[in-house]
Structure formats: structure tokens, C-alpha cells
Amino acid sequence: MWWIWVVLGGVQQSTPLLSCSNISGHLLVPNGTVKIPDNQYKDCPNITGVTFNTDGHLEKIGNMSFLSYLIDSQLTGAIVIPKSVKEIGYSAFSETKITSLEFESNSSLEIIGNNAFYYATNLSGKITIPASVKKIDPEAFWNTAISRLEFEPGCQIEVIGTNLFRDCTDLTGTIEIPLNVKQIYLLAFSNTGITGLQFASSNTLT
Question: What's the predicted TM-score (pTM) here?
């Protein structure tokens, strides 16, 4: 039996979670949930979608929490990250079949972990990185089908990591690099269809 911490009436309490074998269909994360634990839904065969609680309590989506590694993932559809989330852990959605990714307005997100959406090959459309993001670890979006990439004005990210958008062959157009970016690492945009990178005149890229 796994447990998840929730906030009820301002007091943190624990609520039991069903095992993967008892979950089928669309997962609704209950209000009050603070964190999706590491590995919580890893290789769960019957989850077809997920909706996170938007009550302002969810802060972290744990490492490998929805990773599909040993199974053919059934997790598909749109993923909306609540504005309260500060971190998406490594390999959180790797090798799933999610189709789109949206961050709520006024996001608090700071970290997108290594391989977070690695080989989520059905993930398509536009991705807009919130202004609050400070760090995207390597390979986070490697081999997805995203077609457009934007950073919100004032985005705090400083490093565009190794293999970050590698093999995103549908990604096209000119990418506007945020002012704070100081380094773009090896193969970050390798094998994409982008036509250029645009930098602010005061950019401090080294």
C-alpha cells in the first residue's frame, strides 16, 4: 500500500493510494495532493489519462512517476501542469503516449528533470516554457513530436542542456533564446527542423 500526502483543512494528512492493479481508466489526482511520489504509477498498464488537482497544493510530480518502460503505455491525451507545481522529476512522463503539454498561467515551475518527456513520441504541438523555469535538465524533450517552441517573456532559464530537443524532427521555425541563457550545450537542437536561433542584443551567452 502506497500513501500520498494531502492537505485537508490546512492540516497535512495521508491518504492511501490504490495499487496499479486496481487502477483503470482516467486518473483524477485528488485535491490536497502535495506530491506524486517517485515511481508511483511507473509501468501501470491501465491508466489512460491523468488530471492533476488544481487546488494549489501540488508541488512536485516525482521521478519516474508515470514512466512507461516495461509496458506499452496506455497513458495518452493532454497533460495540464497546475500552476502550483515547482518540479517535474526525471523521466516523469518518459515513453508515454501523451499528446499535448500545457502549463497553467502564472506557473511556479522551476525545474524540468532529465528525460522528463523523453521518447513521448506522440507529444506534439506548441510547448511554451513558463517564465518561472530556471532549469531544464538534459534530454527532457528528446524525440518528441513538438512543432513549436516558445519561452515566456522573462524566462529565467540559464542553460539549454545536452540533447534537450534532439530528434524533435517536427520542430520548425526560429527559436527565440531567453535573455538569461548563458550556455547552449552539445546537440541541444540536433536533427530538428528549426531554421535559426534568435538572441537578444544584450544576451550574455558564452
Answer: 0.90
